[in-house]
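Researcher: For the record, we're logging two predictions in this thread. I'll number them. Prediction 1 follows.
Model: Prediction 1, sequence and structure:
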Amino acid sequence: MNIKHLTRYAAVYFAGILSAGAVSAAPIFGPQGEFSALFYKLEWKPGSSCRKPLRPYTSDSYAMDSYRDDGMRYLKCVKEAAGSDIDYASQVVADGYEKAVNDFLKEVKQGY
């Protein structure tokens, strides 16, 4: 396979990944949640901006309604943070992929 075919193959392959919708614009401020790794297992937790509501001390209707509303806001916050971090991670992987392909193609073009 010559350099022309290799370059064309890489361009078509990368365009296919982008058109599949796997990558979107990365958030400007980076991840919203917190990533951690323990024994090769990557875990994610919502960031400190999402505050889990405390259970009410009483069972009156006002306390339960307030807890339910706070819970809905918490779940919405977690969903938005997760979506933002999925977009961010996808963009980071796509950028790394593009850099690896470009670095390799540049090396191939330079020859031996």
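Researcher: Logged. Prediction 2.
Model: Prediction 2, sequence and structure:
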Amino acid sequence: MRFYGIPSEDRALELLAGMPEGRWVFVENSTQTELDLEQAREKLREIFLLIKGWKESNKHIPQTTTFIFVHTPDQPKHFKVYDLSSLGCSVSLNPPRWECYLLENK
């Protein structure tokens, strides 16, 4: 599955409107919760705003740093969101801190 990086949190917030109806799975640090569409949108909105706050409060994080990745931006069914521990020099990427996907995509 191919994911596209969304460097702008404002753009990521716009993508929430395109999320399809259905049951969503929200994963945070390996803990899974099943949510309806509105609950999933609210969780992701909180996370995107948190990341926006990181960038605004830490001058060492370039504004173009990408923490948010989405599969098919035109109809988002799967989001992966990384945290500050993913920054740095590494040949591999840490697992995402948050993940949210349509249950049927599992």
